[in-house]
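hey so i finally got around to running the thing on that chain from the lab meeting. sorry it took forever, my laptop kept dying and i had to restart like 3 times. anyway pasting the input first so we r on the same page abt which one it is
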Amino acid sequence: MSSKITIVIFDYGGTLDTGGIHWSEKFWEGYQYFNVPVSKEDFRNAFIFSEKNVQSKIKPENGLMETYRAQLFYQLEYLEKNNLLPSTYRAIIDELAEYCHRSVMNYVKEIKMILSRLAINYKLGVVSNYYGNLVTVLNEIGLMNSFHQ
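ok and heres what got predicted. didnt touch it at all, straight out
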């Protein structure tokens, strides 16, 4: 029996898109960049609330920005409902989403080069517990063709 590796499988959602940084930390980074005045503990609770609620709202055809906007909507909703942040911060959802998108796209440039090198010798696959729109997102960011189909 040969032990030669022929397939390499990647995860998406806190790995291929962020270099292993959990998405809660990427969002927190955005909050810090825009000086959103919440504690990290309150933010974590908002992130957990968002994760529980957003999964049923994301559709297979939703792209990356729509995904970020939905996540941020629920985070800010939690913070507002718990009187931790005024509703005026909803005005920066698009800016926060764009900040996250830029971060991912900068990282994806490097990942594309790595995947293209690996594809010479291996079949590449992707697994994820993302939101049901992984194919749309991978197509949008230019990674879908990297994976064996």
